[in-house]
Design goal:
single chain; alpha+beta; 3 domains; 8-stranded mixed β-sheet; two-stranded parallel sheet; 16 helices; 57% helix
Length: 554
């Protein structure tokens, strides 16, 4: 099935661009051909008729002798306008039957010159001669005669290209060779016709002389051109050579429309092969990587379209891999890798950042109560909610560690407000968990409880691992250890921060200091502050007293 790449259904595996179904002509910028020099048929006809009428008006209004130059210019412009119309009609006929059977096309192009000659004679006797007697100085006669000759010659050129291209196609499989052979055949045929005319022309004149030895005349409206017997004008031995040269030049001039028509058809053949590729590239530029072009035509164009299809397939595969890779890394990491043109060189560096751990309370008991499949389902629902909140606050989700989530701010992208941003994100997670519990989103366990500990300070952030095998963006250092150790002391539903985070400017919350706590692996006690939920003085005293009792018992 051949589909238009600009209107392909989403469920189609791939779009096929064919030369018969291309995007609108306005979206395609073809190469310059002889057709781009044409006037529109209606415009050309209007110009020709207008110039003829103007010539008649000038001849009737002014003396003929004083306006010879202007009348001649009007005749020339009228001829050019009608010749442009003839070229347009030839192209219309050629492209109207382009998808028909070869025999039909040949028959149409054989009949076109015959019909043209008949219409030309009808125009000469029906309009040219009467208008000449009315004072147009033969302008209409010249225009109709030249237009008829031009259309006849152009039609023969189209026929010649059609026949020669059909014959050459069976000989050569490459487009370049076909063009060369077709042009050579056209030149040889035109030369043969011109030579034949130069040889047969004098014989035809001699036959006419023998039939009627009286002078004959021809008036084309430019001036009266009288031709007597050539032997009366030229010396012996000169008439044959000059007459042969005259006929040769005349036929060469008459073959100009045929050559232009043939060149136009050859350039159209090139563009017919190029337009599907151009449409394909335009579709790729718009992000449509499911587009495909049928592999057809000459061997070189078939190879070109095959290469294009392979290129698009590779791009589509790379896009799918990037999309899959994006499921394992954050958008920030992915954007950074794109900026570095695929080189994941997020070198470890020491920077002041904020990290927090969101830990599920009672996870061990939960694991014993429900089966592994239900446990994964609960975790995935929780992680999905956490990921949405973290993305909304532009945090970087470092990793999932069983029942905990690690999120960092100010790494890998710069965030001057990382301390306060992390607090708002953590509170957003607690609100999201409360909302899920109210909606009974965890029927397996009843309700989910989470504690979050936040620490701000210096840490090492960057890629960890072998760039040739496996890399992971992570954060290391004492600040990370502070957040991890502090999280184990945070009550369910609360958010604690360390001293440096509490001292950060711009806090929307009021961090309430708690009693220092002793954590594993640190000689100095941590001084936590609670930012959620907000505490009054009574609650704060109770919590502090409880912590002191626990510390003494430890």
């Amino acid at each position: 099935m051949k589909l238009n790449p600009h209107n392909s259904p989403s469920n189609a595996p791939a779009s096929l661009i064919s030369s018969s179904r291309l995007p609108p002509r306005t979206s395609v910028q073809p190469l310059m051909t002889t057709r781009t020099l044409q006037l529109k048929p209606r415009t050309a006809l209007q110009i020709s008729v207008g110039l003829i009428v103007a010539g008649i008006g000038i001849n009737l209004a002014l003396p003929t002798d004083s306006m010879v130059g202007l009348v001649g210019l009007l005749k020339l412009l009228s001829v050019l306008g009608l010749c442009s119309l003839a070229t347009s009609l030839d192209d219309r006929v050629f492209h109207l039957f382009v998808n028909r059977h070869l025999a039909t096309r040949i028959l149409v192009h054989l009949m076109t010159p015959v019909v043209t000659v008949g219409l030309t004679l009808l125009g000469i006797y029906g309009a040219g001669l009467p208008l000449r007697s009315w004072g147009d100085e033969g302008t209409t006669l010249v225009v109709i005669a030249c237009g008829g000759v031009w259309l006849t010659s152009a039609s023969l050129g189209s026929l010649m290209v059609l026949v020669l291209n059909t014959g050459v196609r069976s000989i050569s499989t490459t487009f370049r060779t076909r063009i060369n052979l077709t042009v050579m055949a056209m030149v040889a045929l035109a030369g043969a016709l011109a030579y034949s005319a130069s040889q047969l022309g004098p014989e035809v004149v001699g036959i006419l002389d023998r039939i009627d030895a009286t002078p004959f005349g021809a008036d084309l409206g430019l001036s009266s051109l009288w031709l007597w017997q050539t032997v009366q004008v030229l010396g012996p031995g000169e008439s044959d050579e000059l007459l042969a040269l005259t006929y040769f030049v005349l036929l060469v001039l008459m073959s100009v429309p045929a050559v232009l028509s043939a060149c136009s058809k050859l350039s159209d053949a090139v563009m017919q092969a190029v337009r599907p590729l151009q449409a394909g590239f335009e579709a790729v530029a718009q992000g449509q990587l499911d587009v495909r072009i049928p592999v057809e035509g000459s061997r070189d164009f078939a190879k070109l379209t095959h290469t294009f299809n392979e290129m698009v397939s590779s791009l589509e595969l790379a896009k799918r891999m990037e999309r899959a890779f994006g499921s394992y890394v954050s958008r920030e990491i992915l954007d950074q890798i794109r900026t570095q043109h695929g080189r994941a060189t997020l070198e470890p560096s020491l920077r002041v950042a904020t990290v927090f751990f969101a830990d599920i309370r009672g996870f061990t008991t939960m694991s014993e109560r429900i089966n592994p499949k239900q446990l994964l389902s609960v975790l995935n629902r929780f992680y999905e909610s956490v990921a949405s909140v973290v993305e909304a606050h532009q945090g970087f989700l470092v990793q999932y560690i069983g029942d905990a989530v690690v999120v960092v701010f100010n790494g890998p992208i710069d965030q001057p407000d990382h301390a306060t941003r992390s607090v708002e994100c953590a509170i957003g997670i607690q609100k999201a968990v409360d909302l899920l519990n109210n909606e009974e989103a965890f029927p397996e366990i009843g309700a989910l409880e989470v504690g979050i500990g936040i620490a701000t300070g210096p840490m090492v952030a960057g890629n960890l691992g072998d760039s040739n095998h496996l890399l992971q963006y992570t954060v290391l250092g004492d600040t990370v250890n502070q957040a991890a150790r502090m999280t184990s002391h945070v009550p369910a539903g609360a958010v604690w921060v360390n001293q440096r985070n509490a001292d950060a400017p711009g806090h929307r919350r009021d961090p309430m200091p708690l009693a220092p706590i002793k954590v594993k692996g640190r000689a100095r006690r941590l001084e936590p502050h609670q930012v959620w939920p907000a505490l009054d003085i009574t609650e704060l005293t109770e919590i502090t007293t409880l912590q002191e009792l626990e510390a003494r018992g430890a």
